[in-house]
Amino acid sequence: MSTPGTPPTLADATRGRILFGGDYNPEQWPQEVWEEDVRLMKEAGVTSVTVGVFSWARIEPRPGVRDFGWLDRLMDLLHTHGIGVVLATPTASPPPWLGRLHPGTLPVDEDGRTEWWGSRQHFAPASPDYRRAAAAIAEAVAARYADHPALLMWHINNEYCTYDYGDDAARAFRGWLTDRYGTPGALNDAWGSAFWGQSYDTFDEILPPRRAHYLRNPAQILDFRRFSSDMLLECFRAERDIVRRHAPGIPVTTNFMPLFFGQDAWEWSRHEDVVSVDTYPDPADPHAGQYQAMIADMTRSQAGGPWMLMEQAAGAVSWRDVNRPKPEGLNRLWSLQSVARGADAVCYFQWRQSRQGAEKFHSAMVSHAGERGRGFLETKRIGADLARIGPRAAGTRQRAEAVILHDWHAWWGSAQEARPSRLVAYEDVLRAWHRALWEAHIPVDFAHPAQDLDAYRLVVVPQLYLLSDDAIDALVARVRAGATLVCGFLTGIADTDDRVRPGGMDARLRELLGIDVLHEWWPLAEGERADCGTFHGTLWSEEIQPAPGARAVASYASGELAGLPAVLRHGNARYVSTLPEPEALRGLLEDAAREAGVAPALDGLPLQVEAVRRGPLLFVLNHGRDPVTVPVPGTHRDLLTDTEVREAVRLPRFGVAVLDPV
Amino acid sequence: MSTPGTPPTLADATRGRILFGGDYNPEQWPQEVWEEDVRLMKEAGVTSVTVGVFSWARIEPRPGVRDFGWLDRLMDLLHTHGIGVVLATPTASPPPWLGRLHPGTLPVDEDGRTEWWGSRQHFAPASPDYRRAAAAIAEAVAARYADHPALLMWHINNEYCTYDYGDDAARAFRGWLTDRYGTPGALNDAWGSAFWGQSYDTFDEILPPRRAHYLRNPAQILDFRRFSSDMLLECFRAERDIVRRHAPGIPVTTNFMPLFFGQDAWEWSRHEDVVSVDTYPDPADPHAGQYQAMIADMTRSQAGGPWMLMEQAAGAVSWRDVNRPKPEGLNRLWSLQSVARGADAVCYFQWRQSRQGAEKFHSAMVSHAGERGRGFLETKRIGADLARIGPRAAGTRQRAEAVILHDWHAWWGSAQEARPSRLVAYEDVLRAWHRALWEAHIPVDFAHPAQDLDAYRLVVVPQLYLLSDDAIDALVARVRAGATLVCGFLTGIADTDDRVRPGGMDARLRELLGIDVLHEWWPLAEGERADCGTFHGTLWSEEIQPAPGARAVASYASGELAGLPAVLRHGNARYVSTLPEPEALRGLLEDAAREAGVAPALDGLPLQVEAVRRGPLLFVLNHGRDPVTVPVPGTHRDLLTDTEVREAVRLPRFGVAVLDPV
Amino acid sequence: MSTPGTPPTLADATRGRILFGGDYNPEQWPQEVWEEDVRLMKEAGVTSVTVGVFSWARIEPRPGVRDFGWLDRLMDLLHTHGIGVVLATPTASPPPWLGRLHPGTLPVDEDGRTEWWGSRQHFAPASPDYRRAAAAIAEAVAARYADHPALLMWHINNEYCTYDYGDDAARAFRGWLTDRYGTPGALNDAWGSAFWGQSYDTFDEILPPRRAHYLRNPAQILDFRRFSSDMLLECFRAERDIVRRHAPGIPVTTNFMPLFFGQDAWEWSRHEDVVSVDTYPDPADPHAGQYQAMIADMTRSQAGGPWMLMEQAAGAVSWRDVNRPKPEGLNRLWSLQSVARGADAVCYFQWRQSRQGAEKFHSAMVSHAGERGRGFLETKRIGADLARIGPRAAGTRQRAEAVILHDWHAWWGSAQEARPSRLVAYEDVLRAWHRALWEAHIPVDFAHPAQDLDAYRLVVVPQLYLLSDDAIDALVARVRAGATLVCGFLTGIADTDDRVRPGGMDARLRELLGIDVLHEWWPLAEGERADCGTFHGTLWSEEIQPAPGARAVASYASGELAGLPAVLRHGNARYVSTLPEPEALRGLLEDAAREAGVAPALDGLPLQVEAVRRGPLLFVLNHGRDPVTVPVPGTHRDLLTDTEVREAVRLPRFGVAVLDPV
Q1: How confident is chain A (662 residues) per 10-residue block, as mean pLDDT?
Q2: Which chains touch A (3 or more CB pairs under 8 A)?
Q3: Which domains does chain C possess?
Q4: How close B649 gets to chain A, by Cα (Å)?
Q5: pTM for this predicted structure
Q6: Shortest CA distance to A610 belongs to which of A626, A621, A600, A601?
Q7: In angstroms, what separates the C-alpha of A198 from chain C's closest C-alpha?
Q8: Residue A413 backbone dihedrals phi, psi, to 5 degrees
Q9: How many residue contacts between A and B have a Cβ separation below 8 Å?
Q10: Residues tagged in the binding site annotation of C
């Protein structure tokens, strides 16, 4: 239990364990299955389950009529068997009656099309009717279960993600803009409304960026993205305040979708007690392990410490075109990788695979094949593993000396309708740079660009299209103070209003990076590769005139840019004007890390092996299908096998060792 | 004329002939062309034409004002020249005034967009206003022409195919659901509404599956597909009853689109006197001949005997991206193939190619090139051929000992938004299996899974995602009684409510097929091939644990499934867990057929030659561009050439022989 | 100044110069930037700028409240510095208040979706409210600046291009149809409404071709395209009349998008004093130089003399997927090419690159890099070049002996939903044929098919799907009178109502071209090539029966058409039934030109060098990246370098010589 007066944390829920469990939807099953469920949960070492996420229509089948009996029985049953509950407010899926009585609660898309009930997330976040009804049901749930002994955590709503362009949204957007800008003149200035004659005389004239004849105002779209994230955040905070009032010692979370475009997760994280995330890498993606690592690094950075893996799939999902299951061992590998990278909870959607509904082909801890299925056997193995490492791992922290700067506003700004190249996707660039560091085995955090960077010796900026003046000043200062910087293209182009900086790129950054004149961008076509002498670049190239004192680390070797710098170095700052192929980008970052004195987690690691230090432990994970022997200096005990490991550890396919120094 | 008291049949229209003709739309032409038309029709041996399909606005130019004069003249003219009439109710294309006066008669799509007049099929089948107006015009047409001596058949509407998500549809859907389920609770149970909190408190809350934020409830969509087929069927039956009342001896049909997703043609066929179909294989498709054969087999099975080819193209259609004409001889080949496979009518859209309108580039029996065009020369040749074979072929039947099970509800169920693989398309799988049998020259029927299968020694189930308990019991019983079964993947997964069977596949089927545990599906990516040792599989693979007594006929040879069965055999049942490449699937089915004692139509046939027995006749068809000599034991007379054929027949490119035993 | 009583022309604005400048939007910039602008304009030799295009909201921030102060200051400032003004009516982008007060002014698309404000061109051209407001603001602008000494030209609206399917459009469409047809019967006949039963009883029943269930009536769509062009033209003419009334001596233009589908530019040009165009070839397209030439030839033909290049990009645009800048020299090359082909004005969108708004990544004469950027250096060079050649080039004319027939109505007619091949795109075919002539260095005009063709010895018809009787008669007469004709496929198929001609192609044309029977079209699949013996055809092939006296110049060599003519010759007419590969089509046209006595602009030119004669001058342009020496008989002075050129000129990469005979 948390100290009175200070907000609760994940530790108040884990209580020294790694939580293990999943979404549990017993309303889909007859009572006799509940009994089997708790038996199998105990067999698998499940510590906790998430309950009630989609239960609004069950709890309140008609306006104001509430039925909690089944949930009372469930909470008691779980508690009886020692299983904790992460209890959700059920506001992600309003009952059909809400949309029928209050059509304004339904979202409307940018083309004016209503999103009807019959799915989920059919709520307009700015709708006063929705907010009123959501607050009432949250209040009822909180009041009833605040003191239930099974309660471990509150889970607000689910994967907040709606955009709404309807009339309630228009009204709220006007209010949000009035707060931001004060006068139409200030708004017109920020939006550059003079372009194409879009100036507004009053706030009443403003609309969400609905369907238009041609390109819409990018600053309007940027602000609408900010507004949309804020509207959802208001919904979250309203419900958080309700449950917190009833149960001040119980931590509150909402589950992010990883690197989700619609929410500024830096801002959101500040309002959560626990940062949690749902992650669904594609088992068919050969680089999925790195993706999973990136999400872990990002979520840990948002949490500032241990975080919660709220949802993953035991096997296949059902929403891709082709949905592969996880081969033997992969579920375990990625679960332990999450713990290695800071997770104190390893959970799933969902405990038992549904027989009906839109996700009945989404895998679960107990699959359709039942307890004899391969899936459940792996579930039990993971539960046992987590129990073994929990006491040494839970609550511990880790730190990195390298950091990747990342910002939703920069992403939102860059994703405009008309831009130099639609092939440049922020998330792909971010992932390419993280992959380079991951394959170099260099531990890395993520940070908001305006965050204090003093702890980091290597600062990596894959791409930050827009940056505030403060962020630029801080970054420049940190580099001047000795940090090594590696900066990718399309960085520092605009200010926070999406106003292009004089010269086409911020002058302070140009000076830092040694760019005298940025003449032209030369984006590359699909599949085109720019010959840079020692490597090939993709996606982008640039016609830049270096400043005196800057030198080309690599130069374009042919074409219109022949002889111009591809990678420019100026002091301890490097500018990379293309996206180098993976090995080349890795090499660039290895060089920079070496120079900055930033070391990999372990020396001599093969490419497919990941090593991560957390607290006292060293996790070694084999992402390959071939067994491998990894040198590990010193003597350790492998917590998973309870065997001693000297100087080297042998890992089978997808094998993991969790090494505790002896 | 049919026996009083029993419903009329196709024989009442054919009267011992193979009908030959097409849609005839003289309202597009001046009177002088009508005269040329009947002259050319007689020259071509046309027996009958379909009239009035799109004549509503012509007959009733404004509400209640009717003009039948032109149609009276036309009917008389045709009768005078001995040409029969298939007379349509013109309800597929309401006049502009109907939509203008009653906007509710216009369909609305799932995004809420109205489908306006100015095309065709702009009617909402559940609209009371539409139904009232359609009944009135059908009544007027029936009353006027019931006793006309030219009348051979009634043709109701045209290619029924509208989906409607509007408010009339919503009301009717609620009524349909109330009839089906009685209470909201029963509906919630059938739909698994507990998932994502979609439970309905009253039927009034239910909508068609309109646009939603994310995945919609698949059971709701399945029921909406059932409902939509039923709404159209209600429209058909209402008009059928009207014309039948006026002319009890005249058979009634409506023309199906082949393997059309929107109509449960098994159910519809029960309500027709004549089963007819429109088929438009692509001349550019090298396997179009097999497609045509499949549609013929399916339509014959629906009809339970002779059927009517209501529409085909003499040459090119106009709705594909690239529309190829039929090369010399192909129209004739496919026309005779249809007769071989049971058609007693070979008709076209349309008699004379339109000069105006949306289908003026669709070919016709008389093309834009006129009577000197290659098209009309082939038309005349086909007319003459049909006249030669009609007396021996018309009304005869044929039977097969192999059967393919096919069901619309299984198709509807399988086509859900989120599923293991969107690459798996039911119709493609069905076609692949039929192709294997066609290339093996094995005669085959189609049957509904709940149909009596006693007549068949080889039962083939390409894929039946959902099956009723009765269908499963009957299938198991038939196999236990000695039939050979070959069953493809994704069969028996769900019950008729789309509820996944325990274990992920029906236990009775698993026992029959020798599957102990179905661990995981491993759908294959686009272009991926699974090495199965002696062949390659596509689309799908599976991780199954065989039961004792089952043995692998083929096994996966590499990858995660190496060593697991790809084709499993258990007694006289085989389970095929992938889609083998064409030759391999053919080989599998040839083995099974041999074992079942099912023989090809003729021995020693080359791949491109099709042989079909119908009544006393043996049709031999060369689908190849090279001449071929085909051994045919015994002595026959070729009805087309009136020559004697001993032991072998020589067929030119696209050549056909219709052999009558001497 | 123009002679009183005759309309003004471009010469009234150029006054012996080649105009050089661009769109200038000072409302986006603070006053101090204006001062820098005029300094840089003078440095660059700018003669004139286009002002006010998107200034409505700035001039009239709320209904009836007008603020001209800033524009007064700007006009005076420009005039003070000797820079002329092309002044726009700002009606392309109404202020937000107009849509808010009068929602009917917003366009509605064919799916019923509103196009909201927040972009540009959000006006419904048939809306009476829009027209009233547009007339008022045009009146105010014209009244205020008619006599301003800086005023050179009026620029009405901008890139007219809206389609509207809303209720105002429906009303206006009915009126337009009533004018065209008089009675519903005549309309039904023209539209072939009998097809699919679409007959209209009154004009009130008619809608724009909105979303429908299936294919819409192509004649209705064709008329709607005519109507839509006419509605926009009515808007243009109304504003033109207003400004002309205030300033009779000032020429009026509106800027076309090149080869834009929505405007019949032949008709529009008749109503303009100056024909101007915006052209944006893709620098990444290796054939962009030819495209630019084609647009120049077409615009010159519309203007009947000198024309205005209103907009081009100094470097990259921002609306393509990948936007390449122009490499060093390309902007200059294409600018001088435009002058070579008749332009008397070389202008840009825009003068100074915007920092905000939807097109801030669109290049400009002064780019983000500013006056040190490569872009501005090239701007200055072009300004100096134009000043050098202006006195000898401005106002001069040129003529060709070859002509390409082109017609919007034929294009509109051909672009129907259902057609033989959707791969056949009119604009691509047109461009392929122009490219053949361009690569053959043959000067060419464009002409409307009903235009007098007496001046031309070689008539080229790439594709004219529909043709009027008059046009056919004139074409036949011209060929009978001795002109050489080369005619592509899909020509003369339909009359002006989109009614297919008897025989599938007009009989007069068939006779002229030597086609006895047109049996079938055989469109080719994507990537398919038809072997024609000496070359390959693409896109299309045909089964034609030649008339006696016609001979095959080339024949299909394999496939179903083996032995049939691919290119047919009959007297001095050739029919090309496929799209030959580029070299083959060039060869065909070279042969025809030689026979017609039509010579290239210069003999012995390499492929990448373009030569054009204008007035006394010979322009020689190197489109290649390698230097080249071009033989030029005689002695000339190169106006650009002021050097003498004897017998040959050496051109660097992208180099140009403007040769004046000595």
Answers
A1: 76 97 96 96 98 97 96 98 98 98 98 98 98 98 98 98 97 98 98 97 98 98 98 98 98 97 97 98 98 98 98 98 98 98 98 98 98 97 98 96 98 98 98 98 98 97 98 98 98 98 98 98 98 98 97 97 98 98 98 98 95 98 97 98 97 98 94
A2: B, C
A3: 11-164+230-393 (3.20.20.80), 402-596 (3.40.50.880), 609-661 (2.60.40.1180)
A4: 49
A5: 0.97
A6: A621
A7: 6
A8: -65, -40
A9: 184
A10: 120, 158, 319
